[in-house]
Amino acid sequence: PWHGDGGPVPVRRYGPAERTDVARAALEALAGHGVPLLEDHNAPGAVGGGPLPVNCVDGVRMSTALAYLPPPAARPNLEVRPGAEAGEVILAGGRARGVRLAGGEKVAAGRVVIACGAYGSPVLLMRSGIGPAGALRRLGVPVVADLPGVGANLADHPLVPVEMPYRGEPSPAPLFQVGATHRSTLAGRGGAPDVQILIFGPYPGPPPWFSVAVALLTPRSRGSVALARAGTGPPRIDPALLREGADLDRLAEGLDLAEALAGHPAMRA
Description:
A five-stranded antiparallel sheet has the order 1-10-11-12-9, with helices on one face. It has a three-stranded antiparallel sheet with strand order 4-5-6. It has helices at 21-32, 64-68, 117-127, 133-138, 245-262, 265-268, and strands spanning 49-51, 56-57, 60-61, 86-92, 95-101, 106-108, 130-131, 145-146, 159-165, 176-182, 195-203, 209-216, 224-226, 236-238. The mean pLDDT is 92. By secondary structure, the protein is of the alpha+beta class. The protein is 21% helix and 24% strand. It has six helices and 14 strands. The two termini are 36 Å apart.
């Protein structure tokens, strides 16, 4: 009931007949350690383990492009320019007027939507003169708008895998099938889960292996993205993972659970 069924992105879970022996063992281990088993990770208030909702069809993850972009003939007002890196937004009269590509070509537009991801979006803004004024001036970038928050407050999920050897020869199968959410002792009673456990594999190797991994869902550490120089080129990225001590404590607590799951008889077998 918590998923639609008419949109372009398919959402499903792997049923019992599709599960790998690693997935079956993972569900048994989770139940054996008192982790509630869920039918739907996306249901309100759901905390526990079960089959992961995925957007895969025949082993292929349905990206935004695969799900939403129609054949070119069906949309004459759509042009896709692969490999055309945006160098900067063209600004005039207090608004965006288009984009200058890294190669120098200008593309005029009545509206510019910046959707370059957590790293690319602030970089494009800073190249265009929108960002922390002092840092831009030091690089020789003319300042259009002093916005110190551009490039700040970067957050990411640290993940630590516990990798284990797999006995036998893995058969081709989807590798990410089972996961669990967990509240650490720092999450507070009734708070949102702050740790995720992912059991995935087996991979063919050599040698064959599978993994119980721990990820932090609500990191408190914050990093930054900054220009290294004016113009195009890779930025300076400081992910600042585990800068906050509480992140390390919660990740370590999650690893205790991961090691307990890895030691369950079903997983050891």
